């Protein structure tokens, strides 16, 4: 958890996180169809919105810190969201398959 964290004013996605979201959609479409892919994408985006409001929901991962930013992760439905707070913004860095 991020100590003393409060909600942030904005949410941004790295280029890699955007690519990760596209990959999730393609993967789920191929496996379960378009309706399931839309639902999976909606769940991930809603969780990212929740993280922007409550960044302390995630687990602090000091071993992943980068560029002086404290990195956190949140596991959800087979995915691992990697994010960091940068000023009053929350940066979603990656959305990885949780193995």
For the biggest sheet, the summary is: 5 strands, mixed
Name the CATH superfamily assignment: RelE-like
Q: According to CATH, what is the class?
A: Alpha Beta
Shape: globular
**Count of discrete structural domains:** 1
Query: Unreliable runs, pLDDT <50, ≥5 residues?
Result: 1-5
Q: Helix/strand/pairing class, anyone?
A: alpha+beta
User: Which strand-content bin applies to the residues?
Assistant: 25-35%
What value does the average pLDDT take?
90
CATH architecture, by name, is 2-Layer Sandwich
- Quote the CATH topology: YaeB-like fold
| Gyration radius, rounded | 13 Å
Termini separation comes to 21 Å
Secondary-structure topology with pairs:
Layout: E1 10-13, H1 15-32, H2 34-53, E2 59-60, E3 71-76, E4 79-86, E5 89-97
Parallel strand pairs: 1-5
Antiparallel strand pairs: 2-3, 3-4, 4-5
Helix pairs in contact: 1-2
Molecular structure report:
- With 99 residues, the protein is an alpha+beta fold.
- It has a single domain, classed as YaeB-like fold (2-Layer Sandwich).
- It has two helices and five strands.
- A hairpin with a 2-residue loop joins strand 4 and strand 5.
- Helix 1 runs antiparallel to helix 2.
- The chain starts with 9 loop residues before the first strand and ends with a strand.
